[in-house]
């Protein structure tokens, strides 16, 4: 080694040793900190083991595998009221939020649309460790809670149960939720305008639909689907009281019913079949089979590549068909009366749900007339003409014209629901009965809610001869509808009917703007899951 | 001595002036003025243009007869009116048979044109919408409606709005039974749609684009009345009718007891001077005042002239639609 090299080496050595020293120092500090932490933890643990007198009053019990049958009665959150003050009750609910504040922990426990404030406080019933445990329970976990109900002086504005709060004595986690939720429920319920104003988050529709299980837990969703259930029930009850019979029609069919353009094809053993676009054919066959008045509730499949706010590929159809004596207005009267009974039932029994939905999606209350307003197509043309829209006599109404007409009718008659009668024959399907006095028109009608069409109906052609003529006029292959025409060859009563979409009726009744909000697991051209 | 005589073939030949003139014919042109007058008196103008005095006499007689006829007709009209004026002492059965022969044609004269009042006929039903509160049924409008039905083909419908939950059945049938042809709206000249709704003031809507809504029973009554017969052309008389209508709705129906008493006194003195409130003819003033007088309370303390006038109003038979609501 040369002198320089030696010097360099010693310098390096010195440098190394400096570095080494620093390293050693750091390691020492780290070790010291670690030791400190460990001793602290040990001290804590010791302390917690020492002081935890409430050890058996909280925790995560083993998974409920039906180990034992407890006779415990769980109270529902919606029943918590000052009447139950000072009672000791058990209830099961989700943890909506939990917030620790020193020696107390505030929880909001939620059960469907209802929530209540709950409190774990360090005292003779609860220990510090229990409070800590409660504060660490993840949101959306399901808990069993034993608590005493206490009246409060000041109303708790943020909860549905405003006059009481729970003082928790025991709390067990029945089902724990993962810590990171794909969406926060408060964000999902926040009205869009508020979100923008205050800079808080709202959840966009696709995220909500991808995580539907969580989104359906929100108060708004609960209210919407309870109301939808009410619509179905009122539909069934009203029609049953009018003497209608509920039928079930097949959904796998051999020929496309309404023309063939928008059907789903399924493979059917060695051939293929179609998914029914509507129960039309089978409803009519039931009338020819002497059931007189029938209705059916079932899925309807439309393979329309429409990505709009009001189209789904699969929806629930509520369909009515009835034989009448002399005039198809008997059918219109029956259908409109059913709709009015549904609206009245919703107005009188579902106000809570309507108000809950309005909190997130404000809208005007739904107005209607009894008996339902019926206008003729010529009157509609006259009204549109006065408003500056030029339309031909035999032209169909376009969607913007329908909306404008809805606004004009609302202004003049103050109703959100009306019937438009006597449509031009040229724009209706081949099985629509033409008007007896004027060949341009037909015995058909549409019904509108808030300016959007919800039902299309008509008197059907019940004569095989005329039906064949009309089909040929529309250039339909007679072979494909042979069985349909055959059903009218052995005596068929005059009949008519129509069908509504459950999701669309709910959407329009509540004044919502997208049909996916009223469909639990919606199907559209771009969505197949969940 | 003549050989044989033959009757002249063309008669009324004028004597020719022989030997200078072979034959003469009557002057077919005659006097210009006379040939332009009525066909009834065909003028046989003589060659010198004078009118045959016999024809003149005939014409004069015809004119006289026609004049007498017109006088008679006017006299009969006058008599017909006296049968339905307050001085008549008839019972209701007789007058109701008279009223079934469209009293509107005798009581409401004057030509009205639906097109000028309601706008061009666009080939669809012209529907008048009236929003009324079931707590205050508009009796004057119901009476006007029944008179309208006698004059035009009216499609009447009654609806209940969702803002109101319970409406007594008599309010649902207040516009009469459903018309047999009500399934074909186009066949009617006029539509009246009455909606029982929770509104503070009675409201009428017709053409949303061209007309603002009309508020208040008095104003709607004036509008509907104009569909029957125009307001009197004399400005003073028209104002008189208007002031009675306003007095009826604002002071009789809605006023305090003192105001009502004052109006009754005014009615009494006015009816002492003429059979109806606006002179010799039944008018909207009488209609409105009748409904409001009876609506505002029992007829115990009404003065004599007013009572007599009330009876003659009833004799007219228009007010039967309002009867069920006045008990």
Written description of the protein model:
The complex is a heterodimer of chains A (530) and B (327). Chain A is of the alpha+beta class. Chain A is 36% helix and 22% strand. Chain A has 15 helices and 18 strands. In chain A, the strands form 3 sheets. In chain A, strands 7-11-12-18-17-16-15-14 form an 8-stranded mixed β-sheet, with helices on both faces. In chain B, 44% of the residues lie in helices and 8% in strands. Chain B contains 12 helices and 5 strands. In chain B, strand 2, helix 7 and strand 3 form a beta-alpha-beta unit. Chain B has a 5-stranded mixed β-sheet with strand order 2-3-1-4-5, with helices on one face. Chain B is an alpha/beta fold and 327 residues long. In chain B, helix 6 packs parallel to helix 8, helix 9 runs antiparallel to helix 10 and helix 9 packs parallel to helix 11. At the A-B interface, helix 9, strand 13, strand 14, helix 11 and helix 12 of A face strand 1 and strand 2 of B.
Summarize the structure.
The complex is a heterodimer of chains A (530) and B (327). Chain A has 530 residues and is of the alpha+beta class.
Number of helices of chain B: 12
Tell me the total number of β-strands of chain B. Answer: 5
How would the global form of chain A be characterised?
A: elongated
Tell me the distance between the termini of chain B: 105 Å
| Class per helix and strand makeup of chain B | alpha/beta
Unreliable stretches of chain A, pLDDT < 50, 5 or more residues?
A: none
What kind of oligomer do you see? heterodimer
Largest interface: A-B, 29 and 24 residues
Structural category of chain A is alpha+beta
Overall pLDDT metric of chain B:
77
The Rg value of chain B, from CA coordinates, equals: 31 Å
Rg of chain A, rounded, reads: 34 Å
Largest sheet: number of strands, sense, barrel closure of chain A:
8 strands, mixed
The span between the termini of chain A is 76 Å
Q: Provide the helix percentage of chain A.
A: 25-40%
Region (Disordered) (chain A): 1-61
Subcellular location (chain A): Cytoplasm
GO biological process, one term (chain A): translation
Organism (chain A): Pagothenia borchgrevinki (Bald rockcod)
């Amino acid at each position: 080694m040369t002198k320089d090299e030696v010097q360099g080496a010693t310098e390096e050595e010195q440098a190394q040793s400096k570095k080494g020293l620093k390293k050693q120092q750091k390691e020492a500090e780290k070790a010291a900190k670690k030791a400190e932490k460990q001793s602290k933890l040990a001290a804590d643990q010791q302390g917690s083991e020492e002081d935890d007198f409430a050890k058996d009053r909280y925790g995560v019990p083993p998974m409920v595998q039906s180990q034992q049958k407890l006779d415990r009665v769980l109270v529902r959150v919606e029943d918590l009221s000052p009447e139950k003050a000072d009672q000791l009750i058990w209830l099961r609910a989700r943890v909506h939020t939990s917030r620790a504040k020193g020696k107390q922990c505030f929880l909001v426990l939620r059960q469907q649309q209802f929530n209540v404030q709950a409190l774990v406080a360090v005292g003779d019933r609860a220990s510090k460790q229990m409070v800590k445990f409660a504060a660490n329970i993840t949101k959306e976990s399901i808990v069993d809670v034993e608590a005493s109900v206490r009246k409060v002086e000041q109303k708790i504005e943020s909860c549905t149960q405003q006059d009481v709060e729970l003082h928790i004595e025991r709390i067990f986690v029945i089902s724990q939720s993962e810590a990171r939720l794909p969406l926060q429920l408060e964000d999902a319920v926040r009205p869009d305008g508020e979100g923008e104003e205050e800079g808080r988050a709202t959840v966009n529709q696709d995220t909500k639909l991808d995580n539907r299980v969580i989104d359906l837990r929100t108060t708004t969703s609960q209210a919407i689907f309870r109301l939808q259930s009410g619509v179905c029930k009122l539909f069934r009850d009203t029609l049953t009281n009018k003497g209608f019979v509920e039928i079930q029609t097949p959904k796998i069919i051999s020929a496309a019913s309404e023309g063939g353009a928008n059907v789903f094809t399924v493979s059917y053993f060695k051939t293929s079949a179609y998914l029914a676009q509507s129960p039309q054919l089978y409803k009519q066959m039931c009338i020819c089979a002497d059931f007189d008045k029938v209705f059916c509730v079932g899925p309807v499949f439309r393979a329309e590549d429409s990505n709009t706010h009001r189209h789904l590929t699969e929806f629930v159809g509520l369909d009515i068909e009835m034989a009448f004596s002399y005039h198809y207005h008997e059918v219109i009267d029956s259908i409109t009366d059913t709709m009015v009974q549904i609206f009245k039932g919703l107005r009188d029994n579902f106000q809570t749900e309507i108000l809950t939905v309005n909190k997130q999606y404000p809208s005007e209350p739904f107005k209607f007339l009894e008996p339902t307003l019926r206008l003729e197509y010529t009157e509609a043309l006259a009204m549109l003409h006065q408003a500056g829209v030029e339309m031909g006599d035999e032209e169909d109404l376009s969607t913007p014209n329908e909306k404008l007409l809805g606004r004009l009718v609302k202004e003049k008659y103050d109703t959100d629901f009306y019937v438009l009668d006597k449509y031009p024959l040229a724009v209706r399907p081949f099985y629509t009965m033409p008007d007896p006095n004027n060949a341009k028109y037909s015995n058909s009608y549409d019904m509108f809610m808030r300016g959007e069409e919800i039902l299309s109906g008509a008197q059907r052609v019940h004569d095989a001869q005329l039906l064949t003529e009309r089909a040929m006029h529309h250039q339909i292959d007679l072979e494909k509808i042979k069985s349909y025409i055959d059903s009218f060859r052995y005596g068929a009563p005059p009949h008519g009917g129509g069908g509504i979409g459950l999701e669309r009726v709910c959407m329009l009744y509540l004044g919502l703007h997208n049909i996916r909000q009223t469909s639990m697991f919606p199907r559209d051209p771009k969505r197949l899951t969940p | 001595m003549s050989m044989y005589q033959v009757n002249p073939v063309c008669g009324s030949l004028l004597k020719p002036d022989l030997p200078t003139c072979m034959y003469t014919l009557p002057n077919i042109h005659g006097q210009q003025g006379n040939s332009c007058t009525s066909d009834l008196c065909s003028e046989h103008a003589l060659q010198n243009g004078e009118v045959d005095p016999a024809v003149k006499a005939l014409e004069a007689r015809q004119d006289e007869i026609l004049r007498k006829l017109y006088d008679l007709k006017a006299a009969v009209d006058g008599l017909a009116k006296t049968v339905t004026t307050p001085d008549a002492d008839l019972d209701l059965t007789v007058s109701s048979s008279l009223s079934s022969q469209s009293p509107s044609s005798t009581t409401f004269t004057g030509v009205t044109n639906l097109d000028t009042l309601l706008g061009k006929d666009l080939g669809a039903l012209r529907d008048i919408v009236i929003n009324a509160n079931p707590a205050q049924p508009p009796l004057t409008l119901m009476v006007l409606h029944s008179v309208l039905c006698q004059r035009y083909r009216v499609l009447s419908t009654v609806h209940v709005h969702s803002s109101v939950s319970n409406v007594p059945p008599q309010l649902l049938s207040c516009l009469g039974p459903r018309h047999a042809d009500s399934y074909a709206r186009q066949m009617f000249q006029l539509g009246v749609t009455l909606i029982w709704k929770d509104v503070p003031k009675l409201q009428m809507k017709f053409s949303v684009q061209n007309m603002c809504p009309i508020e208040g029973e008095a104003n709607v009554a004036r509008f509907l009345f104009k569909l029957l017969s125009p307001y009197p052309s004399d400005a003073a008389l028209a104002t008189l009718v208007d002031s009675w209508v306003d007095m009826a709705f604002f002071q009789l129906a809605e006023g305090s007891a003192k105001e009502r008493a004052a109006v009754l006194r005014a009615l009494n003195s006015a009816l002492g001077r003429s059979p109806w409130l606006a002179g010799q003819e039944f008018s909207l003033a009488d209609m409105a005042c009748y409904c409001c007088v009876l609506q505002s309370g029992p007829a115990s303390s009404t003065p004599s002239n007013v009572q007599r006038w009330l009876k003659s109003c009833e004799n007219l038979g228009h007010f039967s639609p309002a009867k069920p609501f006045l008990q």
